[in-house]
Amino acid sequence: MLLGIHICNFEILQNTTLGVTFAELTEMNAAAAADIYDPVMSSVPEERLPLGQLNIFIGRNSTGKSALFTALAFLGDCLRFNVAYASTKNGRVNFSHLKTSGIDADICFELVFNGSNPDEFLGYFITLSSDQHGRPYVAKETVKRAWFNSQGSNSEILLELENGKGLVRENEELKETAVADTKAPALAAFGKLLQYPWLNRIYAQITRWYFDQIQLKELESLKSGKEGEGGHRHISFTGDNIKNVLEFLKNQDPVYYEEAIQRIAERMPAEKRIDKALNNGVSAGTRKLFALLLLLEDPDPRPLLCLEEPDAGLYHDMVDSLAFALRDYTIRHPDCQVLFTTHSPYILESMNPEEVWIFERPVATTGSGGEASRTVGFTRTRSLARDPVVCAMHQEGIGLGAMWYSGHLDRAWDEVHAKDDSE
Fold first, then answer.
1. Cβ atoms within 10 A of the Cβ of 262, count?
2. Does the predicted TM-score (pTM) go above 0.85?
3. Is the same domain home to 232 and 196?
Protein backbone atom coordinates (compact mmCIF):
# COMPACT_ATOMS: atom_id res chain seq x y z
CA MET A 1 0.00 0.00 0.00
CA LEU A 2 1.22 3.49 -0.83
CA LEU A 3 2.06 5.72 2.12
CA GLY A 4 3.37 8.62 0.10
CA ILE A 5 3.99 9.97 -3.41
CA HIS A 6 6.45 12.66 -4.44
CA ILE A 7 6.59 13.72 -8.09
CA CYS A 8 8.81 16.34 -9.70
CA ASN A 9 8.60 17.95 -13.14
CA PHE A 10 5.68 15.93 -14.52
CA GLU A 11 3.08 18.19 -16.16
CA ILE A 12 1.79 20.56 -13.43
CA LEU A 13 3.24 18.36 -10.69
CA GLN A 14 6.45 20.37 -10.48
CA ASN A 15 7.22 19.44 -6.86
CA THR A 16 4.17 17.74 -5.43
CA THR A 17 3.96 15.53 -2.36
CA LEU A 18 0.93 13.51 -1.39
CA GLY A 19 1.22 11.71 1.93
CA VAL A 20 4.76 11.42 3.32
CA THR A 21 8.20 11.02 1.78
CA PHE A 22 10.68 8.31 2.75
CA ALA A 23 12.84 10.80 4.66
CA GLU A 24 9.85 12.24 6.52
CA LEU A 25 8.54 8.83 7.49
CA THR A 26 12.02 7.81 8.62
CA GLU A 27 12.27 10.86 10.87
CA MET A 28 8.81 10.41 12.36
CA ASN A 29 9.28 6.71 13.07
CA ALA A 30 12.83 7.02 14.40
CA ALA A 31 11.80 9.79 16.78
CA ALA A 32 8.69 7.92 17.87
CA ALA A 33 10.74 4.78 18.54
CA ALA A 34 13.04 6.82 20.76
CA ASP A 35 10.06 8.65 22.30
CA ILE A 36 11.53 12.05 21.47
CA TYR A 37 9.30 13.22 18.62
CA ASP A 38 8.54 16.92 18.86
CA PRO A 39 6.29 18.34 16.11
CA VAL A 40 7.66 21.82 16.74
CA MET A 41 11.30 20.78 16.19
CA SER A 42 10.52 18.34 13.39
CA SER A 43 11.46 19.21 9.81
CA VAL A 44 8.41 17.28 8.59
CA PRO A 45 5.76 19.72 7.27
CA GLU A 46 2.74 20.03 9.53
CA GLU A 47 0.29 18.98 6.81
CA ARG A 48 1.96 15.62 6.20
CA LEU A 49 0.07 12.43 6.96
CA PRO A 50 0.56 9.01 5.36
CA LEU A 51 -1.97 7.95 2.77
CA GLY A 52 -4.59 5.53 4.08
CA GLN A 53 -6.64 2.80 2.46
CA LEU A 54 -9.39 5.12 1.23
CA ASN A 55 -8.31 8.50 -0.16
CA ILE A 56 -10.53 11.13 -1.79
CA PHE A 57 -9.03 13.97 -3.83
CA ILE A 58 -10.92 17.23 -4.19
CA GLY A 59 -10.03 20.61 -5.64
CA ARG A 60 -10.90 22.98 -8.44
CA ASN A 61 -10.46 22.04 -12.08
CA SER A 62 -6.87 21.86 -13.35
CA THR A 63 -5.32 21.50 -9.91
CA GLY A 64 -3.49 18.25 -10.65
CA LYS A 65 -5.85 15.45 -9.64
CA SER A 66 -5.95 13.93 -13.12
CA ALA A 67 -2.25 14.67 -13.62
CA LEU A 68 -1.47 12.52 -10.58
CA PHE A 69 -3.28 9.53 -12.07
CA THR A 70 -1.61 10.17 -15.44
CA ALA A 71 1.80 10.19 -13.75
CA LEU A 72 1.17 6.95 -11.86
CA ALA A 73 -0.18 5.26 -14.99
CA PHE A 74 2.89 6.43 -16.91
CA LEU A 75 5.21 4.93 -14.29
CA GLY A 76 3.33 1.65 -14.43
CA ASP A 77 3.70 1.59 -18.22
CA CYS A 78 7.43 2.27 -17.87
CA LEU A 79 7.76 -0.91 -15.81
CA ARG A 80 5.53 -3.01 -18.05
CA PHE A 81 7.11 -1.81 -21.30
CA ASN A 82 9.84 0.86 -21.36
CA VAL A 83 10.10 4.62 -20.93
CA ALA A 84 9.92 5.48 -24.64
CA TYR A 85 6.83 3.35 -25.27
CA ALA A 86 5.15 4.61 -22.11
CA SER A 87 5.76 8.20 -23.25
CA THR A 88 3.50 7.70 -26.30
CA LYS A 89 0.95 5.26 -24.87
CA ASN A 90 -2.69 6.22 -24.22
CA GLY A 91 -2.56 9.48 -26.13
CA ARG A 92 0.68 10.80 -24.65
CA VAL A 93 2.64 12.77 -27.26
CA ASN A 94 6.23 12.11 -26.23
CA PHE A 95 8.55 12.32 -23.24
CA SER A 96 9.30 16.04 -23.57
CA HIS A 97 5.57 16.85 -23.50
CA LEU A 98 5.25 15.09 -20.13
CA LYS A 99 7.74 17.45 -18.51
CA THR A 100 6.59 20.51 -16.61
CA SER A 101 6.25 23.40 -19.05
CA GLY A 102 9.07 25.91 -18.88
CA ILE A 103 11.33 23.75 -16.71
CA ASP A 104 14.23 21.82 -18.22
CA ALA A 105 14.70 19.13 -15.59
CA ASP A 106 14.40 15.38 -15.22
CA ILE A 107 11.14 13.71 -14.21
CA CYS A 108 11.44 12.17 -10.74
CA PHE A 109 9.23 9.80 -8.80
CA GLU A 110 9.40 8.76 -5.16
CA LEU A 111 6.96 6.17 -3.88
CA VAL A 112 6.75 5.00 -0.27
CA PHE A 113 5.17 1.60 0.42
CA ASN A 114 4.36 -0.20 3.63
CA GLY A 115 6.38 -3.32 4.37
CA SER A 116 5.43 -6.74 5.66
CA ASN A 117 4.84 -5.36 9.18
CA PRO A 118 3.79 -1.96 10.61
CA ASP A 119 7.36 -0.99 11.55
CA GLU A 120 8.77 -1.44 8.07
CA PHE A 121 8.47 0.44 4.79
CA LEU A 122 10.07 0.66 1.35
CA GLY A 123 11.06 3.60 -0.82
CA TYR A 124 11.29 3.53 -4.62
CA PHE A 125 13.09 6.41 -6.34
CA ILE A 126 13.48 6.80 -10.10
CA THR A 127 14.79 9.63 -12.27
CA LEU A 128 13.91 9.73 -15.97
CA SER A 129 15.97 11.83 -18.37
CA SER A 130 16.52 12.14 -22.12
CA ASP A 131 19.59 12.26 -24.34
CA GLN A 132 20.53 14.96 -26.85
CA HIS A 133 18.10 13.45 -29.35
CA GLY A 134 15.20 13.51 -26.91
CA ARG A 135 15.21 9.76 -26.33
CA PRO A 136 14.17 8.97 -22.74
CA TYR A 137 16.05 6.65 -20.43
CA VAL A 138 16.38 5.77 -16.74
CA ALA A 139 19.12 7.96 -15.26
CA LYS A 140 18.90 6.85 -11.62
CA GLU A 141 17.01 4.19 -9.71
CA THR A 142 17.08 3.35 -6.01
CA VAL A 143 15.12 1.11 -3.66
CA LYS A 144 15.52 1.52 0.10
CA ARG A 145 14.13 -0.36 3.08
CA ALA A 146 13.74 1.01 6.61
CA TRP A 147 12.52 -0.64 9.79
CA PHE A 148 12.16 0.33 13.44
CA ASN A 149 12.23 -1.42 16.79
CA SER A 150 12.86 -0.65 20.45
CA GLN A 151 16.59 -0.33 19.74
CA GLY A 152 16.09 2.41 17.17
CA SER A 153 15.92 2.70 13.40
CA ASN A 154 17.70 0.84 10.62
CA SER A 155 17.82 1.20 6.86
CA GLU A 156 19.49 -0.46 3.91
CA ILE A 157 19.84 -0.08 0.16
CA LEU A 158 18.23 -2.84 -1.88
CA LEU A 159 18.99 -1.46 -5.33
CA GLU A 160 21.02 1.51 -6.49
CA LEU A 161 21.82 2.18 -10.13
CA GLU A 162 23.01 5.19 -12.08
CA ASN A 163 23.11 5.02 -15.87
CA GLY A 164 22.58 1.27 -15.66
CA LYS A 165 25.41 0.45 -13.24
CA GLY A 166 25.39 0.03 -9.49
CA LEU A 167 24.51 -2.33 -6.65
CA VAL A 168 21.80 -4.81 -5.75
CA ARG A 169 21.33 -6.58 -2.41
CA GLU A 170 21.36 -10.35 -2.69
CA ASN A 171 21.44 -12.69 0.33
CA GLU A 172 22.06 -9.76 2.71
CA GLU A 173 25.06 -8.62 0.67
CA LEU A 174 25.40 -5.74 -1.79
CA LYS A 175 26.80 -6.90 -5.10
CA GLU A 176 27.83 -5.02 -8.21
CA THR A 177 25.38 -5.27 -11.07
CA ALA A 178 24.52 -3.66 -14.38
CA VAL A 179 21.73 -3.67 -16.94
CA ALA A 180 22.36 -3.72 -20.67
CA ASP A 181 19.48 -1.38 -21.50
CA THR A 182 18.49 1.79 -19.63
CA LYS A 183 15.34 2.25 -21.69
CA ALA A 184 13.40 0.35 -19.01
CA PRO A 185 13.71 0.48 -15.21
CA ALA A 186 15.97 -2.13 -13.63
CA LEU A 187 13.08 -2.93 -11.30
CA ALA A 188 11.33 -4.43 -14.33
CA ALA A 189 14.07 -7.08 -14.44
CA PHE A 190 14.96 -7.66 -10.79
CA GLY A 191 11.33 -7.36 -9.70
CA LYS A 192 10.40 -10.50 -11.63
CA LEU A 193 12.89 -12.63 -9.69
CA LEU A 194 11.80 -14.24 -6.42
CA GLN A 195 15.35 -14.07 -5.07
CA TYR A 196 14.76 -10.33 -4.58
CA PRO A 197 11.57 -10.42 -2.46
CA TRP A 198 11.41 -6.70 -1.67
CA LEU A 199 11.94 -5.68 -5.29
CA ASN A 200 9.39 -8.28 -6.33
CA ARG A 201 6.91 -6.81 -3.84
CA ILE A 202 7.19 -3.30 -5.30
CA TYR A 203 7.15 -4.49 -8.91
CA ALA A 204 4.07 -6.65 -8.32
CA GLN A 205 2.21 -3.70 -6.83
CA ILE A 206 3.01 -1.07 -9.44
CA THR A 207 2.34 -3.30 -12.45
CA ARG A 208 -1.09 -4.31 -11.11
CA TRP A 209 -2.46 -0.83 -10.45
CA TYR A 210 -5.90 -0.18 -11.95
CA PHE A 211 -6.80 3.11 -13.65
CA ASP A 212 -10.48 3.63 -14.25
CA GLN A 213 -11.41 4.87 -17.72
CA ILE A 214 -15.08 3.89 -17.56
CA GLN A 215 -17.05 6.42 -19.61
CA LEU A 216 -20.84 6.69 -19.81
CA LYS A 217 -20.79 7.09 -23.60
CA GLU A 218 -18.77 3.91 -24.06
CA LEU A 219 -21.06 1.97 -21.73
CA GLU A 220 -24.07 3.24 -23.68
CA SER A 221 -22.55 1.91 -26.91
CA LEU A 222 -22.25 -1.55 -25.38
CA LYS A 223 -26.02 -1.93 -25.56
CA SER A 224 -25.46 -2.98 -29.14
CA GLY A 225 -23.68 -6.08 -27.88
CA LYS A 226 -20.08 -5.31 -28.82
CA GLU A 227 -18.53 -7.36 -26.02
CA GLY A 228 -16.37 -10.21 -27.26
CA GLU A 229 -16.69 -13.86 -26.34
CA GLY A 230 -14.80 -15.82 -23.71
CA GLY A 231 -14.04 -15.30 -20.04
CA HIS A 232 -11.81 -12.52 -18.70
CA ARG A 233 -10.14 -12.69 -15.29
CA HIS A 234 -10.31 -8.94 -14.58
CA ILE A 235 -12.52 -6.08 -15.66
CA SER A 236 -10.82 -3.78 -18.18
CA PHE A 237 -9.92 -0.15 -17.56
CA THR A 238 -12.88 0.89 -19.74
CA GLY A 239 -15.35 -1.59 -18.24
CA ASP A 240 -16.25 -2.96 -21.67
CA ASN A 241 -15.94 -6.64 -20.73
CA ILE A 242 -18.52 -7.01 -17.96
CA LYS A 243 -20.12 -10.15 -19.38
CA ASN A 244 -16.71 -11.72 -20.00
CA VAL A 245 -15.71 -11.22 -16.36
CA LEU A 246 -19.00 -12.64 -15.14
CA GLU A 247 -18.53 -15.67 -17.39
CA PHE A 248 -15.04 -16.26 -15.97
CA LEU A 249 -16.23 -15.93 -12.36
CA LYS A 250 -19.15 -18.28 -12.91
CA ASN A 251 -16.94 -20.97 -14.45
CA GLN A 252 -14.01 -20.49 -12.08
CA ASP A 253 -15.87 -20.37 -8.76
CA PRO A 254 -19.67 -20.70 -8.93
CA VAL A 255 -20.08 -20.21 -5.17
CA TYR A 256 -18.11 -16.96 -5.13
CA TYR A 257 -19.95 -15.84 -8.26
CA GLU A 258 -23.32 -16.19 -6.51
CA GLU A 259 -22.03 -14.36 -3.43
CA ALA A 260 -20.64 -11.52 -5.53
CA ILE A 261 -23.84 -11.18 -7.56
CA GLN A 262 -25.85 -11.10 -4.33
CA ARG A 263 -23.71 -8.30 -2.89
CA ILE A 264 -23.97 -6.32 -6.12
CA ALA A 265 -27.75 -6.82 -6.20
CA GLU A 266 -28.07 -5.50 -2.65
CA ARG A 267 -26.21 -2.32 -3.64
CA MET A 268 -28.08 -1.62 -6.85
CA PRO A 269 -31.09 0.73 -6.59
CA ALA A 270 -34.26 -1.17 -5.73
CA GLU A 271 -35.92 -0.59 -9.09
CA LYS A 272 -32.83 -1.60 -11.09
CA ARG A 273 -33.09 -5.38 -11.30
CA ILE A 274 -29.74 -7.04 -11.79
CA ASP A 275 -30.98 -9.16 -14.68
CA LYS A 276 -31.71 -5.94 -16.58
CA ALA A 277 -28.18 -4.72 -15.90
CA LEU A 278 -26.78 -7.97 -17.24
CA ASN A 279 -28.88 -7.70 -20.39
CA ASN A 280 -28.24 -4.00 -21.10
CA GLY A 281 -31.75 -3.11 -20.00
CA VAL A 282 -30.64 -0.14 -17.91
CA SER A 283 -29.15 3.31 -18.40
CA ALA A 284 -25.44 3.92 -18.85
CA GLY A 285 -25.27 5.38 -15.33
CA THR A 286 -26.68 2.21 -13.79
CA ARG A 287 -24.38 0.11 -15.92
CA LYS A 288 -21.44 2.21 -14.73
CA LEU A 289 -22.38 1.50 -11.11
CA PHE A 290 -22.63 -2.20 -11.93
CA ALA A 291 -19.16 -2.13 -13.54
CA LEU A 292 -17.64 -0.40 -10.51
CA LEU A 293 -19.31 -2.82 -8.10
CA LEU A 294 -18.05 -5.74 -10.17
CA LEU A 295 -14.54 -4.27 -10.02
CA LEU A 296 -14.81 -4.25 -6.23
CA GLU A 297 -15.78 -7.95 -6.25
CA ASP A 298 -12.61 -9.12 -8.00
CA PRO A 299 -11.44 -12.25 -6.09
CA ASP A 300 -7.84 -11.32 -6.95
CA PRO A 301 -8.06 -7.60 -6.16
CA ARG A 302 -5.68 -4.98 -7.50
CA PRO A 303 -3.40 -3.41 -4.86
CA LEU A 304 -4.42 0.09 -5.98
CA LEU A 305 -7.57 1.41 -7.65
CA CYS A 306 -7.34 4.90 -9.18
CA LEU A 307 -10.86 6.06 -9.98
CA GLU A 308 -11.49 9.40 -11.65
CA GLU A 309 -14.88 10.79 -10.63
CA PRO A 310 -16.52 7.36 -10.16
CA ASP A 311 -19.66 9.11 -8.91
CA ALA A 312 -20.10 11.24 -12.06
CA GLY A 313 -23.40 10.56 -13.80
CA LEU A 314 -24.84 8.63 -10.85
CA TYR A 315 -28.05 9.55 -9.01
CA HIS A 316 -27.60 10.31 -5.31
CA ASP A 317 -28.84 6.90 -4.14
CA MET A 318 -26.28 5.26 -6.43
CA VAL A 319 -23.59 7.53 -4.97
CA ASP A 320 -24.48 6.31 -1.47
CA SER A 321 -24.26 2.69 -2.64
CA LEU A 322 -20.89 3.32 -4.25
CA ALA A 323 -19.49 5.04 -1.14
CA PHE A 324 -20.58 2.11 1.03
CA ALA A 325 -19.08 -0.40 -1.43
CA LEU A 326 -15.74 1.43 -1.55
CA ARG A 327 -15.43 1.43 2.22
CA ASP A 328 -16.51 -2.20 2.45
CA TYR A 329 -13.87 -3.08 -0.16
CA THR A 330 -11.07 -1.64 1.99
CA ILE A 331 -12.37 -3.55 5.02
CA ARG A 332 -12.53 -6.86 3.13
CA HIS A 333 -9.09 -6.27 1.58
CA PRO A 334 -6.83 -4.57 4.17
CA ASP A 335 -3.83 -4.66 1.81
CA CYS A 336 -5.68 -2.83 -0.97
CA GLN A 337 -6.04 0.89 -1.49
CA VAL A 338 -8.40 3.26 -3.30
CA LEU A 339 -7.65 6.74 -4.64
CA PHE A 340 -10.52 8.61 -6.27
CA THR A 341 -11.39 12.13 -7.33
CA THR A 342 -14.73 13.85 -7.06
CA HIS A 343 -16.45 17.18 -7.65
CA SER A 344 -19.61 16.13 -5.80
CA PRO A 345 -20.28 16.88 -2.11
CA TYR A 346 -22.67 13.91 -1.89
CA ILE A 347 -20.00 11.21 -1.72
CA LEU A 348 -17.91 13.35 0.63
CA GLU A 349 -20.69 13.40 3.22
CA SER A 350 -19.89 9.89 4.46
CA MET A 351 -16.10 10.40 4.56
CA ASN A 352 -13.73 11.38 7.37
CA PRO A 353 -11.22 14.28 7.31
CA GLU A 354 -8.19 11.96 7.29
CA GLU A 355 -9.50 10.40 4.06
CA VAL A 356 -9.73 13.68 2.12
CA TRP A 357 -6.91 15.52 0.38
CA ILE A 358 -7.25 18.99 -1.14
CA PHE A 359 -5.41 19.82 -4.37
CA GLU A 360 -4.65 23.44 -5.14
CA ARG A 361 -2.59 25.62 -7.45
CA PRO A 362 -1.86 28.93 -5.71
CA VAL A 363 -2.65 32.07 -7.69
CA ALA A 364 -0.32 35.05 -7.32
CA THR A 365 -1.00 38.60 -8.48
CA THR A 366 1.94 40.78 -9.46
CA GLY A 367 1.93 44.46 -10.37
CA SER A 368 -1.00 46.83 -9.91
CA GLY A 369 -3.67 48.57 -11.90
CA GLY A 370 -3.52 47.91 -15.61
CA GLU A 371 -0.13 46.24 -15.23
CA ALA A 372 -1.40 43.59 -12.80
CA SER A 373 -1.13 39.97 -13.91
CA ARG A 374 -2.12 36.66 -12.36
CA THR A 375 0.07 33.57 -12.46
CA VAL A 376 -1.00 30.07 -11.48
CA GLY A 377 1.48 28.01 -9.50
CA PHE A 378 2.09 24.29 -9.40
CA THR A 379 0.09 21.67 -7.56
CA ARG A 380 0.37 21.22 -3.83
CA THR A 381 -1.76 19.10 -1.53
CA ARG A 382 -2.95 19.14 2.05
CA SER A 383 -4.67 16.60 4.27
CA LEU A 384 -8.03 17.82 5.52
CA ALA A 385 -7.28 16.12 8.84
CA ARG A 386 -4.71 18.86 9.52
CA ASP A 387 -7.37 21.57 9.50
CA PRO A 388 -8.54 22.09 13.12
CA VAL A 389 -11.68 24.01 12.16
CA VAL A 390 -12.90 21.32 9.78
CA CYS A 391 -12.10 18.57 12.28
CA ALA A 392 -13.97 20.39 15.05
CA MET A 393 -17.04 20.88 12.84
CA HIS A 394 -16.92 17.22 11.80
CA GLN A 395 -16.82 16.12 15.44
CA GLU A 396 -19.95 18.20 16.01
CA GLY A 397 -21.73 16.09 13.41
CA ILE A 398 -21.43 18.34 10.35
CA GLY A 399 -20.66 16.32 7.23
CA LEU A 400 -17.75 17.15 4.94
CA GLY A 401 -20.10 17.43 1.98
CA ALA A 402 -22.09 20.16 3.73
CA MET A 403 -18.87 21.95 4.69
CA TRP A 404 -17.59 21.76 1.13
CA TYR A 405 -20.86 23.02 -0.33
CA SER A 406 -20.87 25.97 2.08
CA GLY A 407 -17.29 26.88 1.18
CA HIS A 408 -15.54 25.94 4.42
CA LEU A 409 -13.00 23.67 2.76
CA ASP A 410 -11.95 26.28 0.20
CA ARG A 411 -11.84 28.99 2.87
CA ALA A 412 -9.65 26.77 5.04
CA TRP A 413 -7.08 26.67 2.24
CA ASP A 414 -7.18 30.44 1.80
CA GLU A 415 -6.58 30.98 5.51
CA VAL A 416 -3.61 28.61 5.51
CA HIS A 417 -2.04 30.38 2.56
CA ALA A 418 -2.61 33.80 4.07
CA LYS A 419 -0.81 32.63 7.21
CA ASP A 420 2.09 31.26 5.16
CA ASP A 421 2.42 34.52 3.23
CA SER A 422 2.42 36.61 6.42
CA GLU A 423 5.34 34.61 7.77
1. 11
2. yes
3. no
